[in-house]
Design brief:
By secondary structure, the protein is α+β, with helices and mostly antiparallel strands. Helices cover about 30% and strands about 40% of the residues. The strands form two sheets. It has a seven-stranded mixed sheet with strand order 5-2-1-13-12-9-10, with no helix packed on it. A six-stranded antiparallel sheet has the order 4-3-6-7-8-11.
Amino acid sequence: MSEDLEKIIGKVYQGWKSKQTETSRPHPDEETFVSFLENRLSAEDNDRMKHHLIACDRCAEVLSLQIKSKGLEEKEIPEQLLKRTKKTVSEMLTSYILEIILKLKEKTLEIINTTGDVLVGQELIPAAVLRSRQIKDFKDEVNILKDFKDILVELKIESKGDEIFNLTVIVKEKITQNIIKDMRVTLLKDDLELESYLSDSGKVTFEHVLLGKYMLELSTAKDKLAMVILDIKI
């Protein structure tokens, strides 16, 4: 598992640890864990297992221990099983996280990396195409969109000068484009909550944000919707 992926996993679970209550659903037994790792669950059970692992810190730790168990030598773990496990975790995170790394160059914002699509004028360009066209510099505003399972998230980063930014998050239902009522967006830095707003408009703005690494958690009263990892640096 790559170092960056492990850092993201750690950030996700650390951010939830103090807030997340144990799921009311039964925890998977050992046989279910093994079947999940060996890709023997039905599509429905596999999806249910993924959602449980995202919501349940205890079972995520159990899975981690099973993968990294000291009692198993690496040579005893089938290579294909390791590959499938890494791919599963990666897909889980990709479907849940938007990652953005920006660099401030004088008054220009440069996109170093993102897992979302970038709005250039009236054109929505995938990050990979953006790199192939060598488009990375933006004057004072960057708009990045990402499709998740059920929602569409747009993040607008606006430079206000003196290394200060405004962050605007817009969330809609993916199919209907309707706003999501009772949506909460929380801004965290170093696992500490800085600001948190409950919105009925599907839109939340954080003003006067400084350079640094942040996490944005998007949730409703019932579900965790998505997470944004944002790094703005010089």
